[in-house]
Predict the 3D structure of the following.
Amino acid sequence: MKHYTGYLAIHKFEAELERELEIKGLTPALKKDRLYLVEGEHPPMIWAQMSAFGLEFIPITSINDGARKLKALGRNWGLFTVGNHRRAELIQSELPKYNTKPIPFRHPLPNGPMGFWTLWEPDLIIATTRTSSPFALGEMDFHEDKVMPPSRAYLKLWEFFTVYAPEEISGGTSIDVGSCPGGWTWVLRTLNFDKIYSVDKAPIEKRIMDLGHIDFRKESAFGLNPDDFEPIDWFCSDIICYPERLLNLVNRFRDSGKVKNFVCTIKYQAETDWEKTLKFLEIPNSRIVHLHHNKHEVTWFLKGDQQ
Ligand SMILES: C[S@@+](CC[C@H](N)C(=O)[O-])C[C@H]1O[C@@H](n2cnc3c(N)ncnc32)[C@H](O)[C@@H]1O
């Protein structure tokens, strides 16, 4: 029986996924809506909101038969519809319910696999229990804090430290470059760092400064000298700049040997800069993901315990 790897493109970023598949030498055998199927087993893609491994086509004879066959494979199922929406929803309504409520920051991730399925034809399902995310279709939302953060950029760092770096942080030093108006600096403050260097050409909001433990530097991040800092546990960047400038800054801090972990937003102008994105990926043991809270940007990270 044929198996496929399925990639669900992010809405409005289908072209990014298509280009990524091309760069990685993968040609979709089948495509419907935002769902691309490549024959065989392949790694997750940056520009897929969910990657689904070992997808199999399963014929069904009725709504009940579809639900029964999915339940026999696994418990939790995220549905993406590519047509036959009503029939697909009726099958989904017969499957076990799971929690889809927004979660708090650093809430433990759902345990147990999250499956992916779609009704490809009225009598043909495609499904797998092996996917890249514990959240249905890779979509996750937080109980937002409407009081403290001065911008919504904090949601990216919340997602990162909930999904990709959930380990406990007790003290240490972090640096936040491109920090104004202060959302990321606020998140770092709540993570119990003893000291947070916050760097931007524009000031961060006073109520964030007033939280203490923050050393604000009103200057360009590109002029920073790693020798002026003690060892840094987390280097965080959300600077708006060309990917090349960020890469040079990251490399300067990597070369200093003073930084343990990095998390940086790579932002794009009109076009996705694949050449520089691939340069980031050449940094050993680092990863690039498109967070649910990223827009036309991706998140590059390197965790010291994985070097
Ligand atoms: C998207 S905002 C950051 C939002 C911030 N992470 C937050 O959560 O509030 C990007 C910031 O990059 C800053 N920036 C641009 N060029 C910079 C540079 N050369 N040095 C430092 N900051 C810079 C801008 O001033 C802007 O405040």
Q: What stands out?
A: The domain at 154-306 is CATH 3.40.50.150 (Rossmann fold). Residues 150-151, 153-154, 177-184, 199-202, 220-222, 238-241 surround S-adenosylmethionine (CB under 6 Å).
